[in-house]
């Protein structure tokens, strides 16, 4: 099947998963695994950084999971935290096992708007997974962007996802990486504290910068507020939202937040778009 | 449009037969479970002749009319979404063969549906669901196949229910578009008859087969008078203001907590609503795990599961769930689909077990703003 044929099929039958196979499985943190997937007949899923797929564990159910791989090539990669019956079944899949894929869906990170600007990525926990495709793009086309910074917060050192890769990014001269954890034992020599405490240590020109944030909702709110205080425009701050999703095509209603369907209008939004709604409890 | 025809009850019987002959499954009003429901109809005898419905907040009763009208009621608990956007639908089946899985999509049904007795509010509701399910980037093939083949016989309302407010939503009681034929029930010399308006080439073609004659000026005026009388006797009205903006200004209003004291979060309002479209999916598998399937079923924003993400529900409180339903229906629907999500059919009021009234809730928020405005004006 060609790449275009896959996309056409997905559009004609958007609720029907296409069968892929697990080719690789790695444990990233105590409760998160990364799966490498191969679509039938070598088709490739063409996606933009920040987009997501609906993954089916046959007989169990389906969950919305962001793509965490390199949009420029390689296998289709998803990083999944085992938190419910579906995500537990997905993370238990072994190489060779079939898996259902629908997608890609949604609006991703503003890669075009980021050109010529300082780019600040702020990730909380597994929020680094949806940001990784953006980071690959930034590093792969490095000359198009200004200063690139990754601020990453995890609960504990064990919860640092893609740890070796984070270390290799830290060693590069063309990206600033700063990591913090909430709690750590004495062998941790890094920073301890919430991710917002890293912002004042980072270097960027707030008048010509763009931020991409992904993590728990409360963390994203506080990061966005801190960035506004640093001089960021509200429409230069982008967040990736999470809600219950059953269809990913704007038909099931579940993912609404105010006037938006997270699946269709997001998951990536500007802070300016969401600020008002994020401030209202249980909206 | 100005050309209208008349047929008597035999004409209606002939219409049902002509639709059946063309392979349509004809669905219309009939009495079932103490209410007027939509089900298969084969003959005039299946229709609720001489019955009406008495509706109030939290109350619905069938009652006898003192005439033999066939369409002398407002709307029952069901809407046509039951047939177009099915309550339960298998989406696909999958069979595991070794390390492979063969997924077989459920083919869209080929059944052709004819709806008899569609009210003006319901025509608008169908148009609204069209925008959601087939009007966007992605098309629901199941809805599309049923919708595209459907033949619609509208019936202008000759009576307004106690919870009706279509006039204030600008959705009735006259059917103005979206039908193949539209009927107005009239008392003619020697029995009941119908003033017939053609809304499509398919409707014109069918009407040509039926025993009809051109309507007189007087008969057309009579038909207009029926609709005008209904419009003048609406049971309720939505406040006449920009509700889209009103509710967005009042997401923190104390009325949400007040209505939550009464709301049982039973989801009745969403099940009877002709525009509510939310669904969930469930996966099933056989004991061996070799065969699995996914079904889609209607869901409701009033359930806790609806907004569940790992860690808990986004809307655990009843106040936030009621607010989600009402603000979506009356406000954010405009942002999403360009119209209100409410057509004024009154079902959510009638079928609410505690009689919560969407027009009253809107008015309460609107009035509180006016009071506040008046107080501000004084100071």
Give a verbal description of the structure:
The complex is a heterodimer of chains A (283) and B (379). Chain A is of the alpha/beta class. Chain A is built from eight helices and 15 strands. In chain A, the strands form three sheets. A seven-stranded mixed beta sheet of chain A has the order 10-9-8-7-11-12-15, with helices on both faces. In chain A, strands 4-3-6-1-2-5 form a six-stranded antiparallel beta sheet. Chain A is globular and about 45 Å long. Chain B folds into two domains: 4-87 and 110-232, no CATH class; 243-278 and 301-371, no CATH class. Chain B is built from 13 helices and 16 strands. Chain B has helices at residues 9-21, 81-84, 120-133, 141-148, 166-169, 201-209, 217-232, 243-249, 255-262, 268-272, 318-337, 347-350, 358-378, and strands at residues 4-8, 24-32, 35-40, 51-56, 59-64, 88-97, 100-105, 112-118, 151-155, 181-188, 191-198, 213-214, 279-285, 291-298, 308-309, 312-313. Chain B is globular. The relative contact order of chain B is 0.16. At the A-B interface, β1 of A face β6, β7, β13, β14 and β15 of B.
User: What proportion of the residues of chain A is helical, as a percent range?
Assistant: 10-25%
List the total number of helices of chain B. Answer: 13
Number-wise, the strands of chain B total 16
What's the helix count of chain A? 8
Helix content of chain B: 25-40%
What is the assembly state of the chains in this entry?
heterodimer
Mean pLDDT of chain B: 96
CATH homologous superfamily heading of the largest domain in chain A: Nucleotide-binding domain of ferredoxin-NADP reductase (FNR) module
What number of domains of chain A?
Answer: 2
The largest β sheet of chain A comes out as: 7 strands, mixed
The first-to-last residue Cα distance of chain A is: 42 Å
Average residue pLDDT of chain A: 96
Gyration radius of chain B, rounded: 23 Å
> So what's the overall shape of chain A?
globular
Radius of gyration of chain A: 18 Å
């Amino acid at each position: 099947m060609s790449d275009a044929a896959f996309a056409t099929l997905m559009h004609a039958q958007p609720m029907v998963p296409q069968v892929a196979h697990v080719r690789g499985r790695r444990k990233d943190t105590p409760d998160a695994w990364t799966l490498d997937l191969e679509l039938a007949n070598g088709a490739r899923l063409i996606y933009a950084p920040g987009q997501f797929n609906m993954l089916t564990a046959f007989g169990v159910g389906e969950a919305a999971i962001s793509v965490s791989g390199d949009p420029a090539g390689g296998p289709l990669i998803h990083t999944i935290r085992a938190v419910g019956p579906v995500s537990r079944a997905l993370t238990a899949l072994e190489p060779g096992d079939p898996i259902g894929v629908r997608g890609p869906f949604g609006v991703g990170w503003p890669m075009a708007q980021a050109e010529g600007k300082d780019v600040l990525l702020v990730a909380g926990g597994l929020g680094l997974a949806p940001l990784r495709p953006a980071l690959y793009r930034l590093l792969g086309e490095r000359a198009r962007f200004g200063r690139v910074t990754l601020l990453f917060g995890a609960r504990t050192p064990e919860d640092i996802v893609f740890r070796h890769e984070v270390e290799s990014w830290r060693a590069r001269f063309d990206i600033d990486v700063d990591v913090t954890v909430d709690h750590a034992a004495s062998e941790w020599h890094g920073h301890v504290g919430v991710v917002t405490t890293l912002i004042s240590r980072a270097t960027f020109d707030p008048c010509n910068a763009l931020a991409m944030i992904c993590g728990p909702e409360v963390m994203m709110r506080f990061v966005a507020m801190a960035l506004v205080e640093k001089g960021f425009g509200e429409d230069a701050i982008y967040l990736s939202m999470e809600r219950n999703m059953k269809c990913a095509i704007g038909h099931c209603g579940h993912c609404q937040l105010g006037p938006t369907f997270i699946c269709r209008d997001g998951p990536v939004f500007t802070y300016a778009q969401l600020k008002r709604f994020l401030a209202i409890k249980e909206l | 449009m100005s050309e209208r025809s008349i047929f008597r009850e035999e004409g209606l019987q002939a219409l049902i037969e002509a639709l059946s002959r063309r392979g349509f499954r004809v669905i219309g009003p009939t009495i079932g479970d103490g209410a007027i429901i939509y089900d298969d109809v084969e003959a005039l005898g299946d229709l609720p002749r001489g019955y009406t419905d008495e509706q109030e907040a939290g109350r619905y009763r069938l009652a006898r009319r003192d005439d033999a009208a066939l369409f002398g009621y407002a709307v029952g608990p069901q809407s046509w979404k039951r047939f177009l956007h099915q309550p339960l639908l298998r989406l696909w089946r999958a069979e595991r063969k070794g390390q492979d899985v063969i997924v077989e999509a459920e083919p869209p049904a080929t059944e052709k549906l004819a709806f008899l007795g569609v009210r003006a509010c319901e025509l608008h509701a169908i148009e609204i669901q069209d925008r959601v399910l087939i009007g966007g980037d992605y098309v629901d093939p199941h809805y599309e196949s049923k919708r595209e083949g459907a033949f619609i016989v509208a019936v202008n309302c000759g009576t307004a229910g106690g919870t009706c407010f279509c006039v204030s939503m600008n959705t009735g009681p006259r059917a103005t578009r979206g039908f193949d034929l539209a009927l107005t029930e009239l008392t003619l010399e020697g029995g009941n008859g119908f003033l017939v308006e053609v809304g499509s080439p398919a409707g014109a073609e069918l009407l040509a087969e039926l025993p009809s004659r051109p309507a007189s000026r007087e008969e057309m005026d009579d038909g207009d008078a029926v609709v005008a009388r209904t419009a003048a006797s609406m049971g309720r009205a939505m406040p006449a203001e920009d509700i889209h903006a009103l509710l967005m200004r009042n997401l923190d209003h104390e009325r949400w907590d007040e209505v939550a004291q009464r709301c049982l979060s039973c989801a009745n309002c969403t099940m009877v609503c002709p525009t509510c479209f939310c669904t969930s999916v469930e996966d099933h598998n056989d004991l061996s795990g070799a065969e699995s399937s996914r079904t889609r079923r209607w869901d409701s924003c009033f359930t806790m599961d609806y907004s569940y993400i790992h860690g808990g529900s986004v809307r655990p409180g009843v106040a936030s769930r009621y607010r989600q339903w009402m603000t979506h229906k009356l406000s954010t629907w405009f942002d999403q689909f360009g119209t209100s999500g409410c057509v004024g059919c009154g079902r959510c009021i009638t079928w609410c077990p505690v009689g919560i009234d969407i027009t009253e809730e809107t008015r309460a928020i609107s009035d509180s703003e006016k009071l506040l405005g008046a107080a501000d004006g004084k100071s």
